[in-house]
Amino acid sequence: MKKSATAMRTVKSAAFAIETEGSPPVPVRKADGRLTAAGDADGTVQIEVIGSLQELAFVLLGDTVHFKGPTGGYQTMTRRQLAAFYDPSAILDPAKGVPALLAASTKAATQAEEQVGGVAAYRVTATLPQAALSTVVPGVQQGADATLWLDKSNGRLVKASVPLGKGDASGTVIVTLSEYDAPVQVTAPK
């Protein structure tokens, strides 16, 4: 896991996807986009707000967040305001994102070798602490015994499957990272 944490600290950009199965106790139901290590990002997110699913397009550029719902144009807020809900750009942050999550994991055990999205990967089970996990998956109130897929060639995280909740309010959050270090230019919407 330390090799993977170190490998993730050097990532310059990535594509990300977050999806849920069942009813895990988190507000983000689906998200996808691109992000840079500098903190810029763009994509879409589906968030459950008071029992209603809302889809937003977003662009994070510097300290400004541009977001757009299903109607109307883009509005803005500060990155600090967004961080109260979810800041997807934190995923690559070496101090609190995936690198920190991997470094803080415990009880890691390699289970098998598998192909994930065309990438040869080790399937690893590990315990992820709540504090580090909540940066990557917003709203998480518990640690989790997760399954991770780590690229065999470089140790980077390819996929994570994180079971959360109990009873009717339970499910799985699946995070997928791809297109590492591909050129990403995030621009403000017009």
Automatic annotation (TrEMBL):
It is found in: Cell envelope. SUPFAM superfamilies: Prokaryotic lipoproteins and lipoprotein localization factors. Keywords: Cell membrane, Membrane. It holds the Pfam family LppX_LprAFG. It comes from the Bacteria. InterPro entries: LolA/LolB/LppX, LppX/LprAFG. One of its GO terms (cellular component) is cell envelope. Transmembrane segments: none annotated. Coiled coil: none annotated. Belongs to the LppX/LprAFG lipoprotein family. This is LppX_LprAFG lipoprotein. It comes from Spongiactinospora gelatinilytica.
